[in-house]
Amino acid sequence: MKKLLCMVIVSLCVINSVSFAQLKEFPSVTFNGDAQIEVGNHFAGVEFHHSFPMPQRISFYYPVANSVDMSDDYWKRDSTFIMAALLDVGGKKEWIGLEPYEFELTPYSVKFRKSDEEKIIRVSYEFCNDKSAFVLTYEIENISTSTKEYTLETQFENSLRTCHSYKLKDKAYTEFDENGSAVFTNFPDKETQFAQLFVTNAGLQPENYSVKSYLDNQNTISYKWWKEVEWQNQTKLIQKEKTERPAIYYLYKKKLATGEKIKVVQIIGSTKNNEGKQLAGYLLKNYGYEIDEYEKYILKEINKSFITTGDSILDKSVAWAKAVLAVNRHYIDGSIQPMPCPAEYNFYFTHDVLLTDLAAIQFDKERVKKDLEFIIGHADKDKIIPHAYYWRDTAFVTEMCTPDNWNHFWFILVSASYLQHTNDKTFTEKLFPYIEKSLQQTLSNKKNNLMYAYRPDWWDIGRNYGPRSYMTILAIKALSDFIEISGKLKKEIQELEEYKTLSLHMEKALNDSLWKNGYLMNYFQDGSLDEHYYIGSLLAAHFNLIDADKKKELVKTAAEKLLDPQLGIYVVYPMDFHKLIEYLKFAGNEAGDKYKYINGGIWPHGNAWYALALISIGEREKAVEFIKQTMTIDGIINSPNGQPAMYEYRNSNPDLKFRGKVDKPQFMWAAGWYLYLIYNLYK
Q1: Which residues are registered as beta bridge partners of 138?
Q2: Same domain, 103 and 243
Q3: How confident is the model over 611-626, as a mean pLDDT?
Q4: d(CA 19, CA 21)
């Protein structure tokens, strides 16, 4: 930590300007410790826990979002596996993946490594460029002094879970093709959109294969359930007339002299049931090309106006953040759209896209335009924008934004930013009816010049109607942006003067009615003060809605109530939502246990908003130090329970075993907010 702080101090000397450069090679990170990992492409994502080289989940997005996941408890999903590998070296057997491995990570690949006196084991996951598949490679090298027989048995329990409903689909039939010893698993179920999973071999060909799960009806598959396959009793194919629980097992054998390797290359993909053989055949010949093209695509996306600060820690994280934005885009209903993370979310969320686009407008205007086009393209006939879009059971479903949904405000802010950076009045004219509808929708919750909402602060759970600082702050900013858009488009709107007056009145009410205890607070439906301190209030400093003295006091209070000096800002304090389930009308423990998730977890946008508040009071050097410690790849690695990540949230539990544990390590708007901060530092 001392070394990191010294680097911070040195960096302050060179943080006054930025330049543009071309990145020629991505800065991967090698890590040896407990970590959660997610990597993927536009069609598939793989999730790992505790640095085990065997995954807990695979999410496929084509033909629709289906997942391979045997966990039935979200909070314990690190305890189950969908794959296993058994290595036998001269009669000495071991399961690959029962302990953490060292790994080399990028946002688009991971390579695990473990060695002992006799062998080196490497397990890698790489992804195709524009094909619905990834490449799993097992490489075992003999470094002993004698020739030995190596046997590798791989096991893949490939039942599916559906998007949204997460129903287990464990009835399928299988086909086999000699070309690559390919196994095709067909799910004759409309809720999976009749998906076909395939595994084909591009490296060493297997001695044997099997396709029927031997784990019977075990729905929770941890390593205690895995056992060596009895090959003489295994099923070769599952017939279409009698579907059963599927799996794909392979057996490989090779005698290795000292220095020789066994290399198993499995290409794993998901298609429609009439496309698998053609795709598998193509990938057998071209998987290396696909991997190379995907890496080229990532570098191309990074190099769109790639800024460098002269500080290696900041610049590495700029590259990492832009790679995350390139990777976290998934196939959905015929197009590739931004998604929160590689493996754990099968939904399109308007909120996540809009928050990311606040930064993306600086370097990829076309991306932002396409995002806004997608949003209005999925609005309803009344021009109300969507909250989410996803596959559910047998069709794609759109959830529309309710009047108290914060997406309305962020949509206006991003639209205004798009117009400011592009001067594209033609497209903004197309957006304008939706912008106007969003403003009208939200203002229906205005009372006493304050915004009322059901949700506490920025999330979409809970129900207790009252005046909210966060929503009022966003409303004032949205009104200002709406007025600016209207002026640039020369709109003659009857309410425009009223909106100008309203903006001033709301700013006054924010300061007069919600400023309590040196902070901007909220109230409950019964009129009582909500004594929780929320991160949303920090945006008032960034948007200049409070005076200089209040800004300083706001930051001071946040530092006293919400700040963990090594990890960042809690999303709320005190962390007692588990005691307020009935009062706030949460659906069970959806807020999480104390210190977890939104019950006091640490989220990246909270850290970003605190850093922006520091910048607003002239504490630029302190903001840089805070950003480097809590939001860069190096800073996160060097913190308690750190790992390479731009995460959704971290556990704030003071217990050293849990403190700083990362969840969802590759999160789109964590990357977006980091880039937004960099641009704000160099205005």
Answers
A1: 123, 264
A2: yes
A3: 98
A4: 7
Residues 267 and 383 grouped into a single domain? no
Confidence of residue 220 (pLDDT cuts 50, 70, 90): very low
Please count the other Cβ atoms lying within 10 Å of the Cβ belonging to residue 167.
14
Count the alpha carbons within 13 Å of 312 in the hemisphere toward its beta carbon: 5
- CA atoms of 226 and 223, how far apart (whole Å): 5
pLDDT at site 212 = 87
Dihedral (Cα; 32, 36, 40, 46), 10-degree rounding: 110
**Mean pLDDT throughout 424-440?**
98
Counted domains in the chain: 2
Tokens (6 digits) for 628: 């480097």
Q: CB–CB of 606/642 below 8 Å?
A: no
Q: Are 603 and 609 in contact (CB under 8 A)?
A: no
**Nearest to residue 521, comparing CAs of 506, 507, 537?**
537
Structure tokens at 665: 């390590």
> Are 308 and 293 within one domain?
no
pLDDT at position 5, please?
A: 41
The pLDDT assigned to 481 comes to 98
Contact 641, 661 (CB under 8 A): yes
Q: Which of 160-164, 225-229, 442-446 has the lowest mean pLDDT?
A: 225-229
Q: Which domain holds residue 153?
A: 35-298
Torsion sign (Cα): 396, 343, 407, 357: negative
Selection from 575, 574, 558 nearest residue 518 by Cα: 558
Give tens-digit pLDDT for 82-110: 999 999 999 999 999 878 999 999 999 99
Q: What is the per-residue pLDDT for 20?
A: 79
The reported pTM is 0.95
545: which 2 tokens? 């809605």
pLDDT in tens, 317-362: 999 999 999 999 999 999 999 999 999 988 999 999 999 999 999 9
Alpha helices by DSSP H, listed for 517-646, are 539-542, 548-561, 604-616, 620-630, 633-637
Tokens (6 digits) for 427: 């497209």
Which CATH number is 210's domain given?
2.70.98.40
Cβ count near 134 (within 10 Å): 27
Domain match, 397 and 253 both: no
Query: Which two structure tokens, joined as six digits, stand for 208?
Result: 């044997």
Beta strands in 97-181, from DSSP E residues, in sequence order: 102-106, 109-115, 119-127, 133-142, 148-156, 160-162, 168-169, 173-177
